[in-house]
Every structure is written in structure tokens, then in C-alpha cells.
Amino acid sequence: MTEYEVWAPEAERVDVEVEGSRFRLAPDPARAGWWRGLAPAGDYAFRLDGGPPLPDPRSRRQPQGPDGPSRAVDHGAFRWSDTPWHGRPLPGAVLYELHVGTFTPAGTFDAAAERLDHLVELGVDFVELMPVCPFPGRYGWGYDGVSLWAVHEPYGGPEGLKRFVDTAHRKGLGVVLDVVHNHLGPSGNHLPAFGPYFTDRHHTPWGSAVNLDAPGSDEVRDYLTGSALAWLRDYRIDGLRLDAVHALVDDRALHFLEQLAAEVDRLAVTSNRELFLVAESDRNDPRTTGPRQAGGQGLAAQWSDDFHHALHTTLTGESQGYYADFAAEPLGALAKVLTRGWFHDGSWSSFRGRHHGRPFPPAYGHRLLGYLQTHDQIGNRALGDRLSATLTPGQLAAGAALVLTSPFTPMLFMGEEWGAGTPWQYFTDHTDPELAEAVRRGRRREFAEHGWQADEVPDPQAPGTVLASTLDWSEPAQHPHAELLDWYRLLLRLRRSHPELCDPDLAAVRVDHDEELRWLVVHRGPYRIVVNLGAEGPRSVPLGAPHAGTLAVFGRCEADGDSLELAHNSTAVVRTG
After folding, report:
1. Residues 15, 67, 280, 325: which is the catalytic one?
2. Are residues 572 and 564 in contact, defined by beta-carbon separation less than 8 angstroms?
3. Is the dihedral of CA 243, 246, 249, 252 positive or negative?
4. Is 243 one of the annotated active-site residues of the chain?
5. 309 a known binding residue?
6. Which of 243, 250, 345, 429 is catalytic?
7. Strand pairing report for 239-242 and 174-179
8. pTM over 0.90
9. What HEC string does 142-161 produce?
């Protein structure tokens, strides 16, 4: 017999249905709102007050998808490799964001694991997996997932994820998992039937907020922290990326993020492993990563869109939407971000129509993730076009150099390292026809407001959209992809072998630039990262001191005393005297 339990505080009767047979559960005298009881092992579902069968909110496996019955998982049965693994620290590391479904044509954990040698040779330290919780259909980004304790079956289910993590660890790569606590998908979300998992007290872009501070929120917080700890404990994940934490509205004295960070730190001690949390937040608030003892929430790091926006506008000249503030003086914006962490550190944000952010502590640049491209910044464009669709190899190389020699923790998006020619578009596989059509219409309506014709916007439900977004692994060996890949590998070697190039102290960074001539020099100890993005033809860029020799060049350059003659759209890393 197996013990079943579920939190359903508003139910008057709860049954567990196992392989077609029903067994009545009894209230748990020790825990208000919980029901428990014994029944045979097998695929199961819960019935509340005689209602339809519903999957377990804490289901470890959904073999038939989000709406099907649940299945138990014996985590102790998996045979992990004997190779010792205690994790690796985030400071000084480089991350690589990866979507399992489009990283390879097969779209599985096992197929992705077969490509991990590429990442080892590239020189990154962590693989960051986009969400892997179950969602309707086979294909999707994963941000509309449900069943926060389970793994998407088409990717390979629980066993497939464990094999991937085990293989990564054997190759010396850590694994970070993107998790979504701020909302659940519109289809397959049965949590409201069980209890007050959501509240009308707060609202988010996805509707009612997850209940973190209203009545019943103790159990909801335990549900989310339990899920997070299960990924770290049962799957040996090394860190979690928390999606859009600014949407986790919590008025309690102990904020959910602080509670979660403390729980993760305790697990790290008891398991003798490096474990950490990384937030996605648009608040530009250093308290997110500040120590709990000083009133912060204690997360290890957070994404920095300010760095992306400044770098993006510098390279592309785009100025629409939230790029407007950065595009006014893009090289100046980039210089500010490299030396002060955020562009909006209490400054006026025209996109928001108000002042935004507060100053970032300069000694902790590693607490900000810096990137040239991400799933958001590519996939949320109308065509899902990567920078490689519009920029030259030289411009891509300049962006790579500024990311990989920055004082931040760098992150790459899959295929970026060779300038992938494939787009990365928004795709879904909703099984509900009405929802599928609503998503299709909504996507086209959104971009029609920006001048796009409906037939120009890829259909999220079309199989061809997923196919177009899948990496082409023949490209890395072809021109010009191979040359850009070599440049990324070289930059990563330089970063590892020259500590000054990954020093997180923002106060030690100096940036010289000329907005009109479009050159920029980043001073990193004795090293200079020199970029010429000006008009056609070579340009003499001052180094600020006599140089001792060029370490790396993408393009052509010539030395001339205390300056460097650099070709158009070229980049060099030099050591000064």
C-alpha cells in the first residue's frame, strides 16, 4: 500500500482514484486542510467532493500530460555516477542558456547531453535550462508550465533530466534550471480547485497573483519552496533562475524570496554543495542580491537588462520602446552600465514615465548577469530574429568581447557563439483549439500595433515555427560561423587565464568613448578592450598608455605608440605597458 496526501482545505470529501478504483482519504489531525490515507500503488488522481479526477498538485510525474493522472517517482532508484560533485561557485563563471526542445532536432535531454562536449570546448561553466515543467502539447517555451514538481515528458521526463544533469557534472558543467513561481499556464492549471493558491488581493500581467501573503499563503509558500528544493535535492541541480520575481507580490515582513534563499542556503550546508538562486527582476533594486543580514533578500545574482539594452542600442541603433533612454547616447549608456552596474539607478525612465532604480554597490559586479542575447530579447521580437540577422560578424565579435570581458557574470544564448542563422521564435502547441487561436490572434495583434502585417508574424502553433527555431549544427563548421566560434573560445580562454578580465569591481573599470566617432575603450587593469564601430575605414583609437602587445584581434589593427589603428567593426584586446 502507498500513502497519499493532498492539501484541500475547502473540500468536505477527498478520494484518491488509483487505476479506476476510488479510496476515501481522511482529514489529517496534525495538519489543518490536509487529507491522507492508504491505497494501492499506481497512476492516481484526486477527486474533490465527487468532482472530476485531478492530478496531484505535488505530482512528481505526469506521463500523459498536465491533465492526466499522476505517477510517483522513486528518486532513490536512479544510479548517479560515482564522480564526486560538490558544485561550483557562480562568481567568475559563465552561463549558457539552453532550450531543450530546440537545442537539437530531437528536442530531448539525451540529445542535448550528446552536445555537451561542444560547451566544454567552448569554455562555459554552467548550462541554464529553460523551464522543464509539464505544459500542454509537445512544444513550447516552458513558461506556461504547470505541475511544478514534475518534468515535461516529451523531453524525457524525470529520468531524462537526471541523466542530463549527471552527464553535465561528469563533464565538469554545472546545471541551472529556470523555474516559474509567479504564474502558471492557462491550460492544465488545476491548483485553484484544491485551495487558495492564487489571490485577488494582487494582480499581475497574468491575472490573479500567486498567494504569498493572504490567508492560506503558508501552504502556498511551502508548496513553492518545496518544489524549488526538490529540483536541487532530487535532481542535483546546482542553481535556480527565478522568472520575473517582480511579479511575486508579497506584503509579509518575511518576503518569499528571502525565505526561499535561506532554505536554499541551509540545503547547501547539509548537502555540502554550492547552491544558488538567480533572479530575473526589472526593479533595479540591489536589495534583491543584498545579504539578508543587511536587509537584502540574499539571492546570488540577477539578470541585468540595462547592460543588454545599452549594448544592443550601441550595436544596432534601435531606439523603440524601452531602448529609447539608452539610444540617446548609446556609448555613454554602455560606459555608465560598465562602471555603475545599472543605467537606471534612480534616473528618469521615459519608457516608465517615472524615475527608476537605485544605485548598485560597485564591488559586486558578479551579482549582475550580463548578456548580448537571451530567449526573451530574441523570442519576443516579431520574427524572433537574432542579432546575426542584421549585424556583421565584426559587430557580433565586438558584442561578445564586451560581454566576456565585463565585470558581470556573462551568459550566452544557445547558438550565439557561432552567430546562428536560425531565428528563435515564439512557439506553442496548445491542445485547446480556442486557446491556440487566441494566442495566434494575440501575437499578431500585438505586433500589428508596431506596423507588422499579420502574415509576417510566424504562427506560434505551426510546426514550421519550431523547426525554424531549432539550431542547425552544421553551421559551426562553416564560414563565417567557424571564425566567430573561434573568437568566443579565445575570449573565454582569455577570461579564465587573465583575472583582470573578470574582476567584478565596477570601481576598477574605466571606459573612454567617443559618441560621434563611435569608438570605445574599456580599461581592465593592464588590459584594454578596444572597439571601433565608426564609419567605414580604419580609425586611430587612443589607449591611454603605451601598449605592450595585442593579445587578440577580430579584424585588422596596427600599433602606433599609445594608440591603435583599428579597422571598421573590429575589436582588439591589448595589454598596456
Report:
1. 280
2. yes
3. positive
4. yes
5. yes
6. 243
7. parallel
8. yes
9. CCCCCCCCCCCHHHCHHHHH
